[in-house]
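Technical note accompanying the year-one report. For the benefit of new consortium partners, we illustrate the data format agreed upon in the data management plan: each record pairs a sequence with a structure-token string. No post-processing was applied to the example shown here.
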Amino acid sequence: MSGRDLTSASDRIIEHARVVRDDNRAGGRHRRTTGRPIGAGSKRLRQQHLTKKIVRIVVAIFALWVAAGIVGTILNGIGFMGVMALIVATIVGVAVLGKYPRMKVPSRTDLARSNDAKALVGKTELWLEAQRPALPAPAADMVGRIGVQLDALGLQLDGLDPNHPAAREVRSLVGETLPEMVDSYRRIPHTLRAEERAGATPDAQLTEGLGKISDELGRVTRELAEGNLDDLAIKTRYLDYKYGGDAALDTNRKDIA
């Protein structure tokens, strides 16, 4: 390796150390972002997974104690050692079933194949939560913002025709573009992520790209909301026409009185 190469490598290492230092001063990306749901969709999926675990634990304990009762009836009791073995088996069963199976994080393939735009929202939130600890602090904060937007978008997509242009756009944006961008960033070596290229560092490019995705999600949300706002305005005008507005309501109240 030449002296120039050594100098370049040394500069990259120093720059990376500066990034880590600044990130730690800001609270640390891992400490600030790990273990927190970014939206209601992923939180709902986690709760469903936990509920299934609890059901499995209850069923397993019930089956274990019923089996012990049957054995005790046949053998005219299981004795002290049998009771202790049953307690130990119960504790082990609760520990194992409480830990496994772990919550499965959707893969990029799962996201790309999801045709249900609303279900895609929750899956994408879970996927982003798994990726967030590896992202720079500004991008991790942007992921949290996208999670809030996905929640709002999920409510609007409920009952929407899967072939609706907005639903197709959401599937493309959230199921393809967003994962591809994050994966492209994660494939870049850590020592090169703070190195400027084409006028910006990969860290800055990722944050900017996520910002554009956030803006696009906001645009789709507004477009879908405009239809609901129009429906509300039409219903309000209908009520005004049918009941004559506030003046007619006051007149009717006086007549009734």
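Partners are asked to follow this layout when depositing records. Confidence is low (pLDDT under 50) at residues 1-10, 23-34, 252-257.
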